[in-house]
TrEMBL record:
Family annotation (Gene3D superfamilies): 3.40.630.30, ATP-grasp fold, A domain (3.30.1490.20), ATP-grasp fold, B domain (3.30.470.20), NAD(P)-binding Rossmann-like Domain (3.40.50.720), Succinyl-CoA synthetase domains (3.40.50.261)
Pfam families per record: Acetyltransf_1, ATP-grasp_5, CoA_binding_2, Ligase_CoA_2, Succ_CoA_lig
Coiled-coil regions, chain positions: none
Residue span(s) of domain ATP-grasp: 497-704
A molecular-function term among this protein's GO annotations: acetate-CoA ligase (ADP-forming) activity
Annotated source species: Mariniphaga anaerophila
Domain N-acetyltransferase: 740-894
Family (UniProt): In the N-terminal section; belongs to the acetate CoA ligase alpha subunit family.
Protein's name in the database: Acetyltransferase
InterPro entries in the record: Acyl-CoA_Synth/Transferase, Acyl_CoA_acyltransferase, ATP-grasp, ATP_grasp_subdomain_1, CoA-bd, GNAT_dom, Ligase_CoA_dom, NAD(P)-bd_dom_sf
Keyword annotations: ATP-binding, Ligase, Nucleotide-binding, Transferase
Length: 896
């Protein structure tokens, strides 16, 4: 879908209002009045075949009769006429549509059919984009353009607000007028039949007037587009999201523990976290946080110091902080000594720092400065209550002066009425967030802290975890799809464990036994003690029906357990097919931790992974974390560290620490399994036993997605994030015989990437970046090593010297959001130049761009970069020398 054509909606020069009526209080009447009286400088064409004029403005009978083709058509007719009008707009060359009309999928079965008809008509015109139907419209304050039936125009600002709820939009606008909050754009997307959240994030992410984006989400339909766009822009512009409908009832019973625990809201939470978004849970906090995040001072953590002139507000703030998971930081000994030397004897001698009711502006500022100097402090909250000797404005000025000298986050809460307003205005002018109550400040701070952590987690460099497989995974997949998955919707334990084991995760191997005598024989072959489990394709939670017996130590116990299990299971689940039992070796779990690791296929977001506290109480305590494959070492470690039982894994009160590195490898292997098998609807390993040496799957159960078995999907379409593109790895040889591996870059390459740039001359760096590029920081490196493979590809050239791998070159392709053109750039380590490496990388990158169906490859260099110009000539790029000394090159990839 074309993003650039959204200009026709948000920057139109001519607007047609189709279906506008003469009733000034109707949707059309209000929209026309908003446009005409609001100061919009473009042309407005009312369209109504039954009216000569509307509100005194001449009317046109249809879009064909308009004197010029409008950029935007706003449809407000009865729903049944909309498909035809959309077709007429397309035939007239109109590229932007807003459908305000209601009566589509929100209205039931007939409405869904009607909406599909609109989609079918829109599909005939590739360049057409549609917002709605069933929407309020849009407002663009910078253009004085109110294309909506909302009253009034908010002031111009730098926040793009996007909402699925039109009713909520009117409430937010009322509140914005009252609070003097401005917007760059205000969009009601309604049913989002065409233009989605992802499209608008892409569009506003490139808008220089938009500094942050706020989303009100009811549901996300195009999850892949949303995730790709959000990850592309979240590190450049804060994206704040409020998700309504957090606790809907489950539509169907899950067939596994993982399915039961991976709730809709926990999946959305994982989406927002992985995309680097800031999630707020109280709608009233959205703009408090938006104001705070706009100050561009990100705390490194959630360790807060509170400076106050009264004990009560400090206690209120502390209670709020602790309840939300923050930390009231313990001040260092050095800080305590400085405060004791400076403050009156009766100060609080701890955090919160009560500087007492008679505190002067100087005392407030100096105490705050001492606190911010403490390396343990991430941020400070300054609380002020009006007392007889308080000078709120002067204190605000002193704190504002201090804020200009620190990079740490400062928040303030001036608690009171009229006497506090001037001080709060001082903070606003100084770019300091100010709140009316401590709890508001704490909520905003904790959201900011979580947001900062989400961003940093996205770009933490993972360790390389070597993962190898005993089998060719493609051949293995063929075997399971042909011989195993067709057996049943719920695979038996033996088949489930076999696949888990084939992916390098150790399991106990159950052996089926159809009767009592076979159970004895298998048990003796295994060696006592053993575990007996019911063998049935119809029973998922075996322990719930008496289908598990542990620590069986003799033949007599085997026979008794078998008879008792057959009787109990038959009574509790009489309709189940029972094929006997399975016998497996009893694993010594003394001192071990039981975890659950699982996979679930979500309708909206594809395959999601879960890890958490395992065993029979897994669903009761719900101590778990969700993530989306693919996983690397850092993501897997973060999943474990987020669990409440993580201290037990590290070693609790003298217990030996568990094998966390092996556990991380297991999670990564599960990530590969999840990526390779879209046919898996649910998978449980429960319990996964973790000891100080081993990680062993004691039980496993796989639920097959029968629909996918019948209708296979494209590679990785079941994943919201594309995995590392292994298909792009290839081995080549230079003319001198040197073996070169060309492969996509990955986050683990950051150290080698920086080492490669260290081997480049200033001239080479300038030819690549067109400036004196500083590459030493992790923050810079993440922009080049952590990429979304959907819209960016970086192919590195890797060699091996003296047993050590090195990067010696990198070619980078960056696509526009419409995926029509790609910009190309290349850098070769000086030592490896003039060896045909540039030609090899460029040719391969052009091949990849063509495979992605990119139409045009673009690049720029300088006129003195003769080696690169030679490469471009060899590969048939068109070369244009610019007057400023730069060179533009272009290759049409649609040509044979």
């Amino acid at each position: 879908m074309a993003i650039k054509s959204l200009d026709s909606i948000f920057k139109p020069k001519r607007i047609a209002l189709i279906g506008v009526s003469n009733n000034p209080d109707s949707v059309g009447g209000i929209t026309l009045r908003n446009l005409v009286s609001g100061g919009y400088n473009g042309v407005v064409y009312p369209v109504n075949p039954k009216r000569e004029a509307v509100l005194g403005i001449p009317c046109f009978p249809n879009v064909k009769s308009l004197p010029k083709v409008p950029d935007l058509a706003v449809i407000m007719t009865s729903a049944k006429f909309v498909p035809q009008i959309v077709r007429e707009c397309g035939e007239a060359g109109i590229r932007g549509i807003i459908i305000m009309s209601a009566g589509f999928k929100e209205a039931g079965k007939e409405g869904k059919i009607l909406e599909q008809q609109v989609k079918d008509e829109r599909a005939k015109f590739p360049d057409m984009r549609v917002i709605g139907p069933n929407c309020l419209g849009i407002l663009v304050p910078g253009l004085n353009m109110n294309v909506s039936f909302a009253a009034g125009m908010p002031k111009k600002g730098h926040v793009a607000f996007i909402s699925q709820s039109g009713a909520l939009c009117t409430s937010v606008l009322d509140w914005a007028y009252e609070s003097n909050i401005g917007f760059s754009n205000f969009v009601s997307i309604g049913n989002s039949m065409d233009v989605s959240f992802g499209d608008l994030i892409d569009y506003f992410g490139q808008d220089p007037e938009t500094k942050s984006i706020v989303l009100y989400v009811e549901s996300i339909a195009d999850a892949h587009t949303f995730m790709s766009a959000a990850r592309a822009f979240s590190r450049k512009k804060p994206i704040i999201v409020y998700k309504s409908g957090r606790f809907p009832e489950s539509a169907a019973a899950a067939a596994s523990h993982t399915g039961a625990m991976a709730s809709e809201d926990s999946i959305y939470d994982a989406v927002f976290r992985r995309a680097g978004l800031a999630r707020v849970f109280d709608f009233g906090d959205i703009f408090n946080f938006t104001d705070l995040v706009g100050r561009k001072r990100m705390p490194k953590g959630n360790r807060l110091a509170i400076v106050t002139n009264a004990g009560g507000p400090g206690v209120m703030a502390t209670d709020s902080l602790i309840s939300l998971g923050g930390k009231l930081v313990k001040l260092s000994d050095k800080t305590m000594e400085r405060l004791n030397e400076y403050l009156p004897p009766f100060w609080s001698h701890g955090n919160p720092i009560d500087v007492l009711g008679d505190a002067t502006p100087e005392r407030f500022a100096t105490a705050t400065e001492i606190v911010l100097d403490d390396e343990n402090v991430d941020a400070a909250l300054i609380l002020l209550t009006p007392q007889a000797m308080t000078a709120p404005t002067a204190i605000a000025e002193a704190i504002s002066e201090l804020a200009s000298k620190t990079t740490k986050t400062i928040m303030t809460a001036w608690m009171g009425g009229a006497s506090m307003r001037e001080g709060m205005q001082v903070f606003n002018n100084a770019g300091i967030s100010s709140f009316q109550a401590p709890e508001q400040a704490i909520k905003a701070f904790m959201t900011l802290s979580d947001y900062s952590q989400n961003l940093s987690m996205l770009y933490e460099t993972p360790k390389e975890v070597p993962v190898s497989f005993e089998y060719d995974r493609n051949e293995l997949r063929k075997k399971y799809l042909k011989d195993v998955f067709p057996k049943a919707r719920i695979l038996n334990e033996d088949d489930s464990k076999m696949l888990v084991n084939d992916y390098g995760i150790d399991t106990t191997s159950p052996i089926p036994a159809a009767n009592e005598d076979e159970a004895v024989r298998v048990s003796e072959d295994k060696g006592y003690p053993v575990v007996m489990k019911i063998y049935s394709p119809d029973i998922t939670h075996k322990s719930d029906v008496g289908g598990v017996a542990l620590n069986i130590k003799s033949e007599e116990m085997v026979r008794a357990a078998f008879r008792n299990m057959m009787k109990t299971v038959s009574e509790k689940q009489p309709d189940a097919r029972i094929d006997g039992v399975t016998i497996q070796k009893m694993v010594d779990t003394k001192g071990a931790i039981e975890l659950i690791v699982g996979i679930k296929k979500d309708k909206a977001f594809g395959t999601v992974m879960l890890v958490g506290m395992g065993g029979t109480t897994a669903e009761l305590f719900k101590d778990n974390r969700l993530e989306f494959p693919p996983l690397n070492e850092k993501l897997a470690r973060q999943m474990l560290e987020s669990l409440k039982i993580y201290p037990l894994l590290k070693g609790w009160r003298g217990d030996a620490p568990k094998n966390i590195d092996k556990l991380i490898e297991v999670l990564i292997r599960m990530s590969y399994l999840a990526a390779d098998y879209p046919e898996i609807a649910e998978l449980d390993i429960n319990p996964l036993i973790v000891t100080n040496t081993d990680v062993i799957a004691l039980d496993a159960r796989i639920v097959v997605d029968e629909e996918i078995m019948k209708n296979p999907v494209k590679d990785y379409d079941h994943l919201i994030l594309k995995p590392y593109p292994e298909s792009m790895v290839k081995t080549c040889e230079l003319k001198d015989g040197q073996t070169i591996t060309l492969r996509p870059i990955k986050p683990e390459d950051e150290p080698m990437w920086q080492e490669m740039l260290e081997g480049c001359s200033k001239e080479s760096i300038y030819h690549r970046f067109r400036n004196d590029f500083s590459f030493e920081s992790h923050q810079v490196a993440t922009q080049f090593c952590f990429i979304d493979y959907d819209r960016e590809v970086a192919i590195v050239a890797e060699i091996e010297e003296e047993g050590k791998k090195k990067l010696v070159g990198v070619g980078r392709l960056i696509a526009d959001p419409d995926l029509e053109t790609m910009e190309y750039a290349i850098l070769i380590n000086d030592k490896w130049q003039k060896k045909e490496l540039g030609n090899m990388i460029t040719a391969y990158c052009a091949e990849i761009a063509k495979q992605k169906q990119i139409k045009t490859l673009l690049a720029e260099t300088t006129q003195d970069n003769k080696p690169m110009l030679s490469v471009f000539r060899k590969l048939n790029f068109k070369i244009h020398f610019n007057e400023d000394g730069s060179v533009s090159v272009k290759k049409d990839l649609t040509e044979n």
